[in-house]
Amino acid sequence: MKLDVCEKTNKFIEENLGLVRLCAKRFVCRNLEYDDIFQAGCLGLVKAARKFDKTRGVKFSSYAVPTILGEIKQLFSNNSQLKTSRSLKELALRIKKENDEYFKNNNKQLTISELSQILQVDTHKIIEAIEYSNISLDSELGASSGAGYWTSSEPYVEFDENGISEKICIKNAIGKLDKNDRIIVYLRFFLYKTQSHVAKVLKTNQVKISRREKFILNFLKHKLY
Q: What is the mean pLDDT of the chain?
């Protein structure tokens, strides 16, 4: 029995929900619940499915992902009741103040471990607050500041098809790592810190960080290829 147009559309949408999950995971944070982000992405998927014209020779993923990302970013822009705790907001402001004063006197920023010592706050909380401030900036500007690894790195309208797939897959693979491994990735490959520096942050030694880094790279290679 042939499916009618509505049933075909619904089936097509269900088959492509994976695109929404991959896009939504790029914006995982404590500002908004994942379910809210996912629902916004689903709205983008529905819009894309209804307007998609396969006769133009463009893959659906190439057409849909910018629309999905656009709806998610619009959610951040319009959201007036962010769920981030007051303490995290206050910590982000304290970090900014300390960094600004230190940069003014030394022409460089404080490290995460230095901030932890100065503010007497665990390094995990410092990183969490930095992530929050990055995502807040992203929601205000419609594009990422480039400092965090949870958010989009460029305005969605500038992605090409290969760039979209690669970036989403990398972010999705990183999201499957545990918390300490994500910190290693962030510090080593986004902030370009040494293994010794990472070892101090995680209160371990450089040898263990080196071994863990090899495991992480093999894990990501397996997930991506």
A: 75
